Amino acid sequence: MSLHTASDSSGDSRLTALQKWLASLSAPELQLTSLRSASSDASFRRYFRIDGVNGGSYIVMDAPPPQEDVRPFIHVADVFGATGVSVPNILAQDIESGFLLLSDLGSTTYLQLLNPDNAHKLYIDAIDALVQIQIHSAPAVLPEYDRALLLRELMLFPEWYIGKHLGLTMTEKQTATLNKVFDTLLANNLAQAQVYVHRDYHSRNLMVLQNGNPGILDFQDAVYGPITYDLASLLRDAYIQWDEEIVLDWAIRYWERARRAGLPVNPDIDSFYRDFEYMGLQRHLKVLGIFARLYHRDGKDAYLKDLPLVMEYTRKAAHRYKELAPLVKLLDELEDKAPQVGYTF
């Protein structure tokens, strides 16, 4: 990501408003001229870093209404923070303008630091934090991850990946095949025990801290839903891949910890792993649609390079289960007809 000072962004009315808001804060005391870009994400949100007069740094979130609403972030920060995991503290807020001042969890993501030597420790830390969040789960605190929402996510795949990215229109028979696979996935997803779900618990949203790993970011879309969802996000990460035997080992370690903690995971390890794979497949199909939409609608091409890995996950998971095999056949049919230019990422 490119770092620049705030003064580089002339003509940015939101930045001007943000600087004015920061200048109005009495505590903590800030070095206003130090405001600089920290990162942006796949939404309309962007983040700045600013130094304190007395040392240290802070993060400023700019979440422009009406596209963004900071209230879910504030709520989930409170809910997750109460479980004892590491999330940013909210130090100042202007809800109507969409501005937040946050404690700084650093600039080193899991993705930046992960390598075969440190991966096991970092992933076990992330698994322990996930269990810590889940054991505090309660209904009616976060929105429900219901069938309508799960299906709406799945429908991003035919609309954006097949329709827009591959440029294809499915036949009635192909649509029926895909819908049957969706029904199979949803039946499994909805039968799973319900816990707090971060929804993007992966290497780009987990920060490496000196203690209290991981620092957890980007949790504003958290819901109450299937227990394997965040584990699938973590271990079937769209941005980094690990060997199957390592993923299986980490999944089993999560399962053992979850059972010890009294979490309602499937007591049979094979059934639990099937739940994990079905949930992962729901997420992969959603992500294929989202990445295609980010490119075709929003002009963000950085995610195109990640499509092949997500498709690899999709095919491998579907290939392992008889009920999901029709998806592999459908993908073969579609990719055979699609223009080859669609695959040169």
TrEMBL record:
Q: Domain named Aminoglycoside phosphotransferase: which ranges?
A: 35-262
Q: Which InterPro entries match?
A: Aminoglycoside_PTrfase, Kinase-like_dom_sf
Keywords in alphabetical order: ATP-binding, Nucleotide-binding
GO MF terms listed in the record are: ATP binding
Q: Which Pfam families match?
A: APH
What's the protein name? Answer: Aminoglycoside phosphotransferase domain-containing protein
| Species this chain originates from | Herminiimonas fonticola
